[in-house]
Amino acid sequence: MKVLEFEILERKYQISCPDKEEEILKACVTLVDSRMKALKTQGKLYSTEKIAIMVALTLAKDFLKVGGANGDESSEKIVELTNTIEKALAPQDKLF
After folding, report:
1. DSSP 3-state of 10
2. Continuous segment of H or E residues that includes residue 59
3. Helix 22-42 and helix 48-65, axial crossing angle in degrees, nearest 10
4. Dihedral pair phi/psi, residue 30, rounded to 5°
5. pTM above the 0.70 mark?
6. Three-state secondary-structure class, residue 15
7. CA angle (14 as vertex; 32, 49 as ends), nearest 5
8. Whole-angstrom distance, CA of residue 81 vs CA of residue 57
9. Of 24, 29, 38, nearest to 11 (Cα)?
10. Model confidence over 36-80: pLDDT tens digits?
């Protein structure tokens, strides 16, 4: 087990991971960081927490679309949750 240090949106984090999973975890960090930066660049969301939630939901939706977990039923729920969150966050766009 080793401690992996990384940055997402210029914030530093540390996480323990088994040696066998270091490369996949680094790939996950790269994917999450790039998605969060892309969403932040769009300028629609300003809170790091909200950006993280939207990225997590998008990644979960992508995972389920390719047949991960429980398939169609879970995928529909993820799409529904994503739409609900986007609607809830929309009024904040007018604040900035």
Report:
1. coil
2. helix 48-65
3. 120
4. -60, -45
5. no
6. strand
7. 45
8. 8
9. 29
10. 999 999 887 788 888 999 899 999 888 877 776 655 566 677 777
